[in-house]
Amino acid sequence: MKLEIITPEASLFKGEATSVTLPGLDGMFQVLNNHAPIISSLKSGEVIFELSGNEADAEMSNLLVRSGSKIHASIKGGVAELNNNRLIILAE
Asked: Is CATH 2.60.15 the right assignment for the domain spanning 2-76?
């Protein structure tokens, strides 16, 4: 799926991911390729995602932290929208 993580200051990530774990208001949840459309509010926490293997094509901020095959981004809240295998996260 195409993933974009955008803050008011900068674009943190733009590229392909195979799975994304998000801090929803009711708890952590995960979206995978071909997930049903969803819009969710996000609380403070970490967005954790795995790249699909096209790392050379990804645009990544130096604010992201790599832990093995996963990448972590700390957020203070926001909104996530997934539609047609494109996940956009508008984060604080």
From this structure: yes
Taking only the tens place, the pLDDT of each residue in 1-40 is 999 999 998 899 998 999 999 999 999 999 999 999 999 9
Look up the pTM and report it. 0.88
What lies within 8 Å, CB to CB, of 70 at 6+ separation is 48, 49, 50
Residue ranges of the domains in the chain?
Answer: 2-76
The Cα–Cα gap between 10 and 30 comes to 24
Q: With contact defined as beta carbons under 8 Å apart, do 77 and 48 qualify?
A: no
Q: How far is CA 13 from the centre of its chain?
A: 8
Q: Contact at 8 Å (CB) between 37 and 82?
A: yes
